[in-house]
Amino acid sequence: MADTSSLNDRVFAMLHQRTNRLAPGDTIAEPLISSSMYHLPDQPHPDRVYGRIANPTVQAAEARLATLEDARTLLFPSGMGAYGAVAMAVLAAGDKVLLPSDGYYAARNLMSQVLAPFGVNMETCAAADMATVPLDGYRLVIIETPTNPHLDIIDIAALAARCHAAGALLAVDNTVCTPLLQQPLDLGADIVIASDTKAAAGHSDVLMGHVSCRDDAIMDKVHAVRSLAGGIPGPFEAWLLLRGLETLDVRLERMCANATALAPILRDHRAVNSLIYPTASAQMAHAGFLLGASFADQAAGERFIKAAEFVPATSFGGVHSSADRRARWGDEVSGGFLRLSIGCEPQAQLIAAVRRGLEAA
Ligand SMILES: Cc1ncc(COP(=O)(O)O)c(C=O)c1O
């Protein structure tokens, strides 16, 4: 399991980031500042020149994430905005990029539908084959671990070493884990991409994404892409994320504990043909809060969702337990496969609801 003490140091620093430097009368809560223009005297502030370049509330949320990631961080209005910025910053015409064939489908669609006309060549391989696939000739390898929706684990340190030996950059989509359950940069990855729409913001009320990286040249390009393509989030959305980040640690603790308690109950019930719950590998602080449960068919899955009082929704990481029937989106899974995102409900009541769902399924 990952070393959680240094992660806790980062959480502590993140929580005290504003309060440590307050003057008498300052607000404890981060102010929500909405302004497209800045006062520009003879000697202007270096980056607060115009709202598309920087915003104080967005920067405050970025600073919190930078502490958790221990890396320079830029926010985007969605996780896909972060993917697009990394692709535009790192790839050029003729470059090859490798993605998992069984990962989040929109990442592949971005490459094949949007970037292919600009000369970017996408290739894919199964996440399980990332450990052995030859990497020569790739400029960028993007993975998720655990993968979504199969929850396979890829060894980040081993893949980073192979990427670097082949001259490729490794970007890790860390959406499922968040920086509190997994630190791809510490494990040797070059870039973190994340959808903060999920657990990081955590209340199902905002879209947001971020890019973190310890290489200034790459981050300068990511920032240029954001400023010039115009993909900066609004201050209110950044403020919602900032608020979510302050409770991420405690929410994750409850969600992960609930998932750990539910996994054997689901696995052992006759209504569930198979259950995926990753074993926390050395690179993860915990196995997380996502479960993949296969019911007999679509109808059985739907009966479970209703009787267990899970929210039927795509996306994950919110405070309410939710379920997504992934075949609906074209993932290569059976019609009865549900990705379950376990929420913050009190454990005894949640277990009772899940037992009701299993009996109904
Ligand atoms: C693993 C993963 N990465 C990226 C994204 C994209 O994030 P967003 O919806 O915030 O653009 C998602 C969304 O479901 C996701 O599951």
Helix content class: 25-40%
Low-confidence stretches: none
Tell me the span between the first and last alpha carbons.
35 Å
How many DSSP E strands? 12
Oligomeric state of this protein: single chain
Structural features, described:
With 361 residues, the chain is α/β, with parallel strands linked by helices. It is 38% helix and 16% strand. The protein is built from 10 helices and 12 strands. Strands 1-7-6-5-4-2-3 form a 7-stranded mixed beta sheet, with helices on both faces. The chain has a 5-stranded mixed beta sheet with strand order 8-9-12-11-10. Helix 4 links the parallel strand 2 and strand 3. Helix 3 packs across helix 4 and helix 8 packs across helix 10. The longest helix has 34 residues. It is globular and about 75 Å long. The two termini are 35 Å apart. The model has no long low-confidence stretch (mean pLDDT 96).
Provide the fold topology.
Layout: H1 4-16, H2 56-69, E1 72-76, H3 79-90, E2 96-100, H4 105-115, E3 121-125, E4 140-144, H5 156-166, E5 169-173, H6 178-181, E6 191-195, E7 209-213, H7 216-229, H8 235-268, E8 272-276, E9 290-295, H9 298-307, E10 311-312, E11 322-325, E12 337-341, H10 347-360
Parallel strand pairs: 2-3, 2-4, 4-5, 5-6, 10-11
Antiparallel strand pairs: 1-7, 6-7, 8-9, 9-12, 11-12
Helix pairs in contact: 1-2, 2-8, 3-4, 3-7, 8-10, 9-10
Could you give a short description of this structure?
The protein is an alpha/beta fold. The protein is 38% helix and 16% strand.
Descriptive keywords:
single chain, 361 residues, alpha/beta, seven-stranded mixed β-sheet, 12 strands, binds pyridoxal-5'-phosphate
